[in-house]
Amino acid sequence: MRERVERVEERMQQMVGSLSNEAVGDLFASLPHGKRLRAKMVLKIAGYLESSIKLAAVIELIHAASLLHDDVIDEAQTRRGEISLNASEGNRQAIMMGDILYSKGFEELTSFDRSIAAKIAHAVTLLSIGEMMDVRLSGSFNPDIESYLQMIYQKTAALIEATAAAAAMLAGKDEKIYGLYGKNLGIAFQIVDDILDVTQSSEKLGKPAMHDFEEGKTTLPYIYLYESLNEGDRDKLISMHGKKLDDAQKNWIRGLMETTESVQKAYLYARELGEEAIALMRGEEEEALAQIVEDMIEREF
Amino acid sequence: MRERVERVEERMQQMVGSLSNEAVGDLFASLPHGKRLRAKMVLKIAGYLESSIKLAAVIELIHAASLLHDDVIDEAQTRRGEISLNASEGNRQAIMMGDILYSKGFEELTSFDRSIAAKIAHAVTLLSIGEMMDVRLSGSFNPDIESYLQMIYQKTAALIEATAAAAAMLAGKDEKIYGLYGKNLGIAFQIVDDILDVTQSSEKLGKPAMHDFEEGKTTLPYIYLYESLNEGDRDKLISMHGKKLDDAQKNWIRGLMETTESVQKAYLYARELGEEAIALMRGEEEEALAQIVEDMIEREF
User: Fold this and answer.
1) DSSP one-letter code for B299
2) pLDDT band at A205 (very low <50, low <70, confident <90, very high)
3) What pTM was estimated for this model as a whole?
4) Less packed terminus of chain B by CB within 10 Å, N or C?
5) In what helix (H) or strand (E) does residue B69 lie, and over which residues does it extend?
6) Average pLDDT over residues B98-117
7) Percent of chain A predicted with pLDDT > 70
8) Around A16, how many Cα atoms within 13 Å sit in the side-chain half-sphere?
9) Does position B71 have pLDDT exceeding 60, yes or no?
10) Is A133's Cβ below 8 Å from some Cβ in B?
11) Is the Cβ–Cβ distance between B10 and A121 less than 8 Å?
């Protein structure tokens, strides 16, 4: 698989190289590669063909663009354990580079069947709206699980859903089944990500631990925690929202999350979605795709 | 024509409305409409049909998105005489809103023929690269006319060129002729814009006068001025680059631009491109499209 993902990297390089702009090429080369989850998914669903390599490259360009803008919006200092582009080169460079990768991605997307292009493009619209929803929800403590789930669907899962569906269309497979697989995987993925922010050390995360809540994000473990608390503790939790936490506060939150089993409940929610996704893929005899879900759910736990 | 452009506005509203997000709808409603040059061009080339109204709306959405990001990147305080979205709502809102309008525009674009979608998408890639080139060129005084022209082609003219070409494709007209018309018009348009920054008052511009040079932009009148100066005055001009100018400095620059006829030379350059565009349209018996060029070149002179 690593060799195949290498071909996707090359294809991305080629797309960016065709822009014939040295500054853009240098900035692109400085970006961390990440897990390339979406590329692997395309290749596993649609096979190792020129068209699937191209689709994978396009989606990864678009994903990279969205991360660049996310990091500007969240004022992130790190990305995958390295200094983020907005932090090292400034917001302007990160915004412009994001715009370039988005537009190049869309340009390449127009070479695919209209139904495939429309599917991916629609997901990017949802992703952009999800980002805005994330920021709006971060303005105050959000105890509402439905708006949290809708937001992470839009922000994270919609593009994974569209990736799986588009790859299925490319391969003549059932786009509904694969789309649902991608959707469940995407939501579970984000919940696990949100859990890791609570349970992991800063070193393992490659970014400050418990930073989501400091940034104003009320993720699923916090929503479950809130539901389990008495009024006094609820007020105390809300009073910590969106502020820098000291070690005592972090320990208080983590301790209560343990006794109320909030992390565990959030994990079970993700696990259930994951099981559904696994069952869908086992039904299609897609063991490798089922394994992606397993690996994702089990990561760092 | 006003009534027809109204239909484009309605179509844009409808596209944004389909996102079913109140915050996005409110922000969109707060944006100034501008001249809708691109929409008018589409309707004049491709006629007043459902498909041309849709194409015009898509292109105006994309154009609006690019302006939102431009204003963040340039730290602009005003846009068309009103406070800019980045200034009133903050950079984050402007970035996210730009991303939403871009992605919705691309999504709608996928309903057109692949050749049309690819043409517009490619222009947006050029536009994004042009923005980065603009920022890079602004880092120091740029006496090179070729890089200035390439940058304004990418940043401004490429989308106007693609607009005209795509509208021609929609109408079964010659995309090469109409594309060249749009390209010439676009470059001339930007040069005139750059000239107006020097010659107009802040009140008329709806933004501070001579701000381009303060921002580091060496536009065509400045390049011609530089070419006409002796070494001492060149050094003096360069020393003022990218800094806030006082009235004495502004008068010094304007006075020399007068005696060296730098504004006039820049205007002649734009005029020549405009004449070419007019001739192309007269050859196609497109008087209304020729008139757009006339109006644009003569504006505020």
Assistant:
1) T
2) confident
3) 0.94
4) C
5) helix B50-73
6) 97
7) 99
8) 28
9) yes
10) yes
11) no
Phi/psi at A155 (nearest 5 deg)? Answer: -70, -40
What distance in Å separates residue A178's CA from the closest CA in chain B?
A: 21
As given in the structure block, the two tokens for residue B149 are 């022209």
Q: Going by C-beta distance under 8 Å and a sequence separation of 6 or more, which residues neighbour residue A45?
A: A52, A164, A167, A168, A170, A171, A173, A178, A286, A289
The residue whose two tokens read 């939501």 is A187
A23:B132 CB<8 A: yes
Distance between CA atoms of residues B169 and B244, nearest Å? 46
Rg (CA), chain B: 19
A21 CA to chain B: closest CA distance, Å? 8
How far is residue B207's CA from residue B202's CA, in Å, rounded to a whole number? 5
Q: Which of A93, A129, A147 to mutate to test the interface with B (most CBs of B within 10 A)?
A: A129
Establish how many alpha carbons lie within 13 A of residue A196's alpha carbon, considering only the half-sphere containing its beta carbon. Answer: 19
Backbone angles phi, psi at B242, to 5 degrees: 75, 15
ipTM over 0.85: yes
* C-beta atoms of A110 and B110 within 8 A: yes
CA dihedral of residues B125, B212, B144, B165 (deg, nearest 10): 30
Instruction: Report residue B154 as tokens.
Output: 């990418």
Domains and CATH numbers, chain B: 1-112 (1.10.600.10), 113-301 (1.10.600.10)
Distance of CA A144 to the CA centre of its chain: 21
Q: Is B107 within 8 Å of A92 when comparing Cβ atoms?
A: no
SS3 track for chain A = CHHHHHHHHHHHHHHHHCCCCHHHHHHHHHCCCCCCHHHHHHHHHHCCCHHHHHHHHHHHHHHHHHHHHHHHHCCCCEECCEECHHHHHCHHHHHHHHHHHHHHHHHHHCCCCHHHHHHHHHHHHHHHHHHHHHHHHCCCCCCCHHHHHHHHHHHHHHHHHHHHHHHHHHHCCCHHHHHHHHHHHHHHHHHHHHHHHHHCCHHHHCCCCCHHHHCCCCCHHHHHHHHHCCHHHHHHHHHHCCCCCCHHHHHHHHHHHHHCCHHHHHHHHHHHHHHHHHHHHHHCCCHHHHHHHHHHHHCCC
**CA gap A168, A238 in Å, rounded:** 44
B2, exposed or middle or buried, with CB in 10 Å at 0-12, 13-18, 19+?
Answer: exposed
Q: Report residue A77 as tokens.
A: 């200092």
Quote the CA–CA distance of A183 and A235 in Å, as a whole number.
34
Q: Are B157 and B123 contacting, i.e. CB atoms less than 8 angstroms apart?
A: no
Rounded distance between C-alpha atoms, residue B177 and residue B183, angstroms: 10
Over the range B198-219, which residues count as b (16 or more CB within 10 Å of their CB) and which as e?
A: bbbeeeebebebbbbbbbbbbb
